[in-house]
Design brief:
about 90 residues, alpha+beta, two-stranded parallel sheet, two-stranded antiparallel sheet, 2 helices, 4 strands, about 20% strand, flat
């Protein structure tokens, strides 16, 4: 089966809920049906929602950072590992 790609195009001043809700639904559906979601903007760099929420446009899992940098040499890839605590891992 051919993988499907869902692309969300955002711009400065977009409504965060217009991205977050549909992205969650299509991302979940993609895991079931073999699809991928992407978020794109007209230009490289961060985009801010109408409430000021910044959306970085270059993100990846830390194990894929070098591959991302090779595939997109014109984009600065921050390869620092960021860890967060969840309710399952917090002391």
């Amino acid at each position: 089966m051919q993988r499907r790609r869902i692309v969300f195009v955002i711009f400065d001043g977009f409504q965060a809920l217009d991205l977050a809700g549909p992205h969650e639904a299509f991302q979940y559906a993609g895991t079931l049906a073999g699809g991928d979601c992407q978020v794109l903007a007209p230009a490289a760099g961060p985009v801010r929602s109408s409430s000021g929420l910044p959306v970085p446009l270059v993100t990846t899992h830390w194990t894929q950072d070098e591959q991302l940098a090779r595939q997109h040499p014109g984009v600065r890839v921050d390869c620092d590992l960021v860890l967060t605590a969840s309710k399952d891992t917090a002391p």
